[in-house]
Amino acid sequence: MIKLVNVTKKFGAITALDHINLSIDDGEYLCILGQTGAGKTTLLRTIAGLLKPDEGEIYVDGELVNDLPPEQRNAVYMFQQFALFPHMDVWQNVSFSPVIKDWDEDRIKNLTFEILEMVKLAERRDAFPNELSGGMQQRVALARGIASGARILLLDEPLGALDARLRVELRTQLRKLVKDQRLTAVHVTHDQEEALMIADRVVVLRRGKIEQIGTPNEVYLRPQSIFVLSFVGGANFLEGNVVRVSDSGSLIEMQSGLHILVSDRSRSIGERVVVAVRLEEVSVGIEVVNSTNSFSGVVETAMFIGGSMEYGVRLENDVLLFSRILLSDAVRAYKPGERVVVSFNPENCYVFAYPVIGLLKEIEAI
Amino acid sequence: MVQRSRNFAFLPKLVVLVAIAAFFFFVLLPTFYLISYVFLRWGEVQLEVFANPIIGDENWGQILKVLFFSFRLSLSTVAFDLVFGVLLAYVLARKRFPGKSLLEDLVTLPLVIPTSGFGFATLITWTTVGGIGGLLGLNSGLMPLNAIVPIINVPFVLFIVHISLTLPYVVRTLETKFQSIDTTFEIASRTLGASTVTTFRNILLPLAVPGVFSGAVLAFARSLGETGATMIVSGVSSTASIAIVRWASEFKLATASFMGSLLVVIAWVIILPVELYFNRRGGSFKISYQLPPSLSNKIIKMEKFASKSLPRIKDFLPLFIIATTIIVPIVMVLNSVMLYWSADPYTGKAQGGVVYQLFGPSNYFNSILQATSTSIIVALVATYVATCIAIPLAFIIERRRYGGFIRTLLKVPLIIPSSSLGLSVLLLWGPSCFDLINSGIWLIILTHIVFSVPVIVESIIAAYEGSNIQMYEDSARTLGATAYNAIETISLPLIKGGILTGFVLSFTRSLGETGATFIVMGRDMTVPALVVNMVEALAIPAALFTSTYLIFLSMALLAVIRILTRR
Amino acid sequence: MPEVKLVNITKRYGKIVANDDISFTIKDGEYVSIIGPSGCGKTTMIKNIAGIIQPDSGEIYIDGNPVTDLPIEDRGIGYVFQNIALFPHMTVWDNITYGPRVKGFTPEEIRALALEMLEMIKVDARSDAFPDELSGGTQQKTAVARALMSRAELLLLDEPLGALDVKVRAELRFELRRLVKDLKLTALHVTHDQEEAMSISDRVLVMKRGRIVEAGVPITLYSQPKNIFTANFVGEANFLTGVITQVSDEGSLIDVGDGLQLMTKSIDKRIGNRVVIAFRPEFASIGDGKKVNRISGKVKDALYSGSIMRLKVQLANGDLIIVKKALNFEKPKSIIGKKTSVTISPDNIIVYDQPENLNKELALE
């Protein structure tokens, strides 16, 4: 069990971690999600003991560890570049920790062999890191971490150095290994698909602060802010003002008079709001099926992305709405220039107050 | 989670303390003492230098004279170095060609070569019939001893020697700097339409400006402090550093130390601002000034032409320089040894032959053997102690906030004239202050430690910064290794090459050091000092032999580095 | 809008053949991506075209002219680097105007071009800022602007988005395509991210171990890859080994073990051939559907990533397959352990001859 209480870390004028409060359960696979510069690596290094927090306490299994050096924290740190010791072969790398902790020789031999078998690298035990492929190096790094007997794995973008396809293949194997060994994992990444797929819980970090913590489903289905909604999964964002609130929901008026019906009833009339709809919830068709939230427009872009088709449809009020659908679910394909009707369900809409700093800044992708 | 490491938690702190103490004592103190000596004995200094009862302020006049001469010499040396050093550094950093490692070694050679032997070899080459003159069929040397370079008015041979000895500082500093600059910037420039020469001017050079300053400043200081070779070739002119040797031997200690301090202060005043400026800005020179377009276009066109038609020339010119300044003297001296082997080739007298001088009445062979053993003992002990100090020091520099300050301080022994260095050690440990050690082998060892530590530290730092050590150590720490364990099992093996290189470089340098040794040696003689003695005793053939012997020993040791670091 | 043609390009590094007798043509105005695992030779290829390295043999033509002997600066290309390579000692403005300046454009031309480019690329940075003050995405946009400024008509991009966050990558890649198309350039884009390549290219080339494995339009490469490696590389796929038991005009019947038979549309194989069948996870549907190719299985695991659910199903013959399904705001129910049936339409099954070593053929690195 790891607990962070009010952990703060500054680098000169920059506050990398701003009063972080976090509890991680034993055996949990926790993903810390955020952009570059959000503070994810700083957080990980602080837990590891490679950095000292300026304020706040860190507890591991109830014990205050702020002043405990890294080698006594029972937490292994794995770098994005793997950091396999270049002057040692696979066997020496994997057995490094047991050797340095002065374990029994036979025990070391058995353990190292067992772990190498587990990651399927037993025949490469004499190879040096620079002779191995990226995926193999990652497995050796994992093996080395597991062999140390540490209960906590701190993974800093563990798949970041690998090719895109390889990443997809290896992420489930990574989770399986951690779960089989009953370890606690804190996995830092900027890839939200990765986090959603393998985490027990996700922490969304932004500028040193925690935006939201929850299971992947919670974070995906019930984002608490526009940023989380945009960062995790992405969405269409529409601006408008609330014109009516009734039992069935609220009516939002966008510019040039188009109206959206949402099932949310928490906003007041006249309030400026942002309505968000996930790309997968926007359907594209030729005819109007249901008059609620149906808008006609022209297909502007048709992109093929990873097994799905993504359409950009320009509505009459100049708003660009995106729809994404799995190729296998698509009834037909649409071409740029075609007139279509897009629609979405009022229940699938999120409503937020219009952000003070402006919508673009709030999303701030680039 | 039980670790046995708790007991050794204090170890790193102890090591740091010892290292810094050793650094202070061995490396810094002598110089500070020298300067304080001048202040403490200001009365004496004033009497001897400014208000001498016999000659008035004649000594001060002499000081000024040699100082100006030294400046003239050193400034023109550096100017020459920059022009050709930049080219050579570029070729070494960016091009691949057969024999490149040989060229690198040749460039490094002057750093470790015994300066007296080298000075002698250069003298032979240019001014005697055993050198180029003889090759061209003349009856005498190519030029007289006191031939002068026009405009700058310094002796030609002296000029050449200084160039050879300082060029490596410019080339190595710049080469390292060039290599540290990602080639992607130059490639980007070329994809945008710039020729290689335009790319060099606009991209590589501005990004390497700190290196240019660093190298120039080091070269200047080296030239200012050059003693060993200068002693042999200077003829009637006197540089500041030779003056120190002369005054010290005449027991005009006050004048000598005053001159020595002056040189240290000057070198500091030049180096410190440059180092601080570049350390703070951390690197490149941001450009905001542009040439007017018409001029700029003309230059670009010329550069385009140069890129296409002159590559061969710009590759060859530096090679030519190296050849003349380094290879040729070595070849010449070898040639002379063979010429003079059994007898003087002109008079036929056996007394003028190498063999006679070595094994005859003067029995120089014995002296050579003795001197060799002294040299090797000194080199081994000094280098070993220096390495023990250098390793922790290098780590401190890399890891502590005050590390940059220590690194700048470490430049002191490098820039100080070797004669000043010798003098300062003599004053500190000898009768004037601690009175622990007299002139002799121990003092020589102490002196050699002073200039060895910086060399080894720089070598280790180069290896350290070249290999992401912090990441590996962090990894090891979280795997259960204590800080000490991590350094022992991970960091040290990874910088092994740097330590080894530093060791051999320093050992070789120690073998050949002349200037400082000369002041502190008393009756124990090292081989380079022996060469100076032989020259002064006009036992030229013996000097020839000894120089050759020394030079080849250095070259052999450099080859050893090459083999060791290839692993 | 030049055409780029490679003829028999070979490049070796010691024993490794990075480019093995490669020939292909990029048409005028085409946006072509080269994808492949690390070490496949794609970067070597693009560097050959740029002139950064020289091929051991073969010819390269840009716009019909042989360029193999031309230095980099004379090839008329724009190059975008993975590590961005903005000159750190120059401002954004000086970086962008560098190309035209060294090519001798007049100051007025340069100024007009720069303003136009900054507008087009929407670089929201002060033109007097230095690169280290900008975010990764802005830096790369500036680098692209710089590459396009000297009016080059061929744009070469070497893993241009590799140094950026996933989200930034997703946004920037469309900008790249838009720019290239608006300016009517020809573009060659190297990347290891097949999703990136497939979403913005007119054509995609797949490379492996120095050779071009397959080339084609993204949708075709995805739905009907001719090569089994391509099938695995451009997207997730299920692979089952089997033997052909029946062939007719409409297709073949394949036995994948333990009596499980699947109908496919392949007509060019013979009875007894050992084959590998492949289908994408999203084309396998769970539950009752058509009767053709309905197999029973048991759900072993379920992984959710936002709106997509991936089920690991063990079929009756022991094979494990992945089924991908859009959730559409369904609350994920617990179905692990349940028995279920999987249906795959014969149209969506691709049949390949079985290679000697299947795992080696499919290997992603």
Can you characterise this structure?
The complex is a heterotrimer of chains A (366), B (567) and C (365). Chain A is 24% helix and 35% strand. Chain A folds into 2 domains: 2-230, Rossmann fold (3-Layer(aba) Sandwich), CATH 3.40.50.300; 235-363, Beta Barrel (OB fold (Dihydrolipoamide Acetyltransferase, E2P)). Chain A has 366 residues and is an alpha+beta fold. Chain B is built from 26 helices and 2 strands. Chain B has helices spanning 10-40, 42-50, 58-94, 100-112, 115-127, 132-135, 156-180, 183-191, 196-207, 209-225, 228-233, 240-249, 253-281, 293-309, 311-339, 354-359, 364-399, 403-415, 418-429, 441-465, 469-478, 483-494, 496-512, 515-520, 527-536, 540-566; strands at residues 148-149, 154-155. In chain B, helix 3 (58-94) packs across helix 10, helix 12 packs antiparallel against helix 13 and helix 21 (469-478) runs antiparallel to helix 22 (483-494). The radius of gyration of chain B is 25 Å and the shape is globular. With 365 residues, chain C is of the alpha+beta class. In chain C, the strands form 4 sheets. In chain C, strands 6-7-8-3-9-10 form a 6-stranded mixed β-sheet, sandwiched between helices. In chain C, strands 13-12-11-14-20 form a 5-stranded antiparallel β-sheet. Chain C has a 5-stranded antiparallel β-sheet with strand order 15-19-16-17-18, with no helix packed on it. In chain C, helix 2 (92-102) crosses helix 3 (107-121), helix 2 (92-102) runs parallel beside helix 4 and helix 3 crosses helix 4 (136-149). The radius of gyration of chain C is 24 Å and the shape is elongated. The model of chain C has no long low-confidence stretch (mean pLDDT 89). The chains are: A alpha+beta (366), B mainly alpha (567), C alpha+beta (365). Chains in contact: A-B, A-C, B-C. The interface between B and C is medium-sized, with 31 and 31 residues.
